[in-house]
């Protein structure tokens, strides 16, 4: 992987200037590569798919295709929104997009705030490169819910046009913002703005968390707001609270550093969030600590349409397109194997596969049901 040159971040009084936004993207890549930013607790270890000893199907004839907003994709694998907004990230997004094009799977870009608000051709290329190299791939854009308080629908349309997006993700990252020394901590009015965008935008809207999960109650509010899909991005896997804790430490913001560590493993576990969101919305993407095709299979059995991964693609993206394709092929074979040994000839069959829930996840779900 390339070695990135990282400007030293500086604390601010809450005025999140665009150069700081761009530099922060580079900070994030370095920290993810160099520091311990993984947490356990997705809940997938507590999910057992019931084995089918007589599947009566041919493994290589299993149909892994799915439909997403009118697009047929070769597999229910999503390259989750990761980066963009700094020239150093162009190579990463190019490799990811080329692989998405070759393998016919979905891919998202990182937050496009810098691209919308900064007039910088090199920075803009870190986003536009994805459509340049992936003319037929399913690509989705990305803006923050907090920024919707500043943007109108035309601004979000500009993000759509930037990459000729097939859908737009609106990310929820308020714990991350609360840990950032320069974070945006005003969450008032976001749900109404999400509903406004979902109603008026030219492409479908996906609302996604960023590592802390979405509860059934929140999923219901988003469903009522008219969003087209929910990406749960649950607890487990990469911790953005932990990442921002490292950034806070670098600028001497000791209180924010401690907050980041305290809330490092906060959130709704991915397996729980998937089950709860799928109970109220018919298009759920499971992400947050998804690390294998078997995890994707479990998520689909829990009700997801697809499974998404981010960090596992970062290292391969630094090596180039072939390495990303190799990882996708490995994930697809793992998924296909899980489908084979559950007797699932299609993704629709896998959604009906039998499973057993144990451990902390069962306890969590039982307690949640008692509270309703």
UniProtKB/TrEMBL annotation:
Taxonomic classification: Archaea, Methanobacteriati, Methanobacteriota, Stenosarchaea group, Halobacteria
GO molecular function, one term: FMN binding
FMN-dependent dehydrogenase domain sequence ranges: 39-112, 185-353
Catalyzed reaction equations: isopentenyl diphosphate = dimethylallyl diphosphate
EC number assigned by the record: 5.3.3.2
Record family assignment: Belongs to the IPP isomerase type 2 family.
Keywords annotated in UniProt: Cytoplasm, Flavoprotein, FMN, Isomerase, Isoprene biosynthesis, Magnesium, Metal-binding, NADP
Stated name of the protein: Isopentenyl-diphosphate delta-isomerase
Disordered as annotated region, ranges: 1-27
InterPro entries listed in its UniProt record: Aldolase_TIM (IPR013785), FMN-dep_DH (IPR000262), IPdP_isomerase (IPR011179)
Alphabetical list of Pfam families matching this protein: FMN_dh (PF01070)
GO biological process: isoprenoid biosynthetic process
Positions annotated to bind FMN: 81-83, 111, 142, 208, 238, 289-291, 310-311
């Amino acid at each position: 992987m390339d070695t990135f040159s990282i400007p030293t971040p500086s604390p601010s009084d809450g005025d999140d200037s665009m150069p700081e936004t761009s530099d922060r993207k580079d900070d994030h890549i370095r920290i993810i590569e160099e520091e311990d930013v993984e947490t356990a607790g997705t809940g997938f270890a507590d999910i057992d798919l019931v084995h089918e000893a007589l599947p009566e199907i041919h493994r290589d004839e299993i149909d892994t295709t799915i439909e997403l907003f009118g697009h047929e994709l070769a597999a229910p694998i999503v390259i989750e929104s990761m980066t963009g907004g700094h020239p150093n990230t162009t190579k990463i997004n190019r490799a990811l997009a080329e692989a998405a094009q070759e393998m016919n799977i979905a891919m998202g870009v990182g937050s496009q705030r810098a691209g919308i608000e900064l007039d910088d051709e090199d920075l803009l290329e870190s986003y536009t490169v994805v459509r340049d190299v992936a003319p037929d791939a399913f690509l989705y854009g990305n803006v923050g819910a907090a920024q919707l308080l500043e943007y109108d629908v035309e601004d979000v349309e500009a993000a759509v046009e930037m990459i000729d997006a097939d859908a737009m993700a609106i990310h929820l990252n308020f714990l991350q913002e609360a840990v950032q020394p320069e974070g945006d901590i005003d969450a008032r009015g976001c749900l109404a703005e999400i509903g406004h965008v979902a109603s008026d935008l030219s492409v479908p809207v996906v609302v996604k968390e960023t590592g802390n999960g979405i509860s059934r109650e929140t999923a219901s509010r988003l469903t009522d707001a008219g969003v087209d899909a929910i990406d749960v991005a649950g607890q487990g896997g990469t911790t953005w609270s932990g990442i921002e804790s490292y950034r806070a430490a670098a600028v001497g913001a000791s209180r924010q550093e401690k907050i980041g560590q305290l809330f490092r493993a906060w959130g709704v576990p991915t397996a729980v969030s998937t089950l709860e969101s799928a109970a109220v919305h018919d298009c759920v993407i499971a992400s947050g600590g998804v690390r294998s095709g078997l995890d994707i299979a479990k998520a689909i059995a829990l009700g997801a349409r697809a499974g998404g991964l981010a960090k596992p693609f970062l290292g391969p993206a630094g090596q180039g397109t072939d390495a990303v394709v190799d990882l996708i092929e490995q994930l697809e074979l793992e998924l296909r194997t899980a489908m084979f040994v559950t007797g699932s000839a299609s993704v629709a069959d896998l959604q009906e596969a039998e499973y057993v829930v144990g451990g902390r996840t069962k306890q969590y779900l039982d307690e949640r049901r008692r509270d309703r």
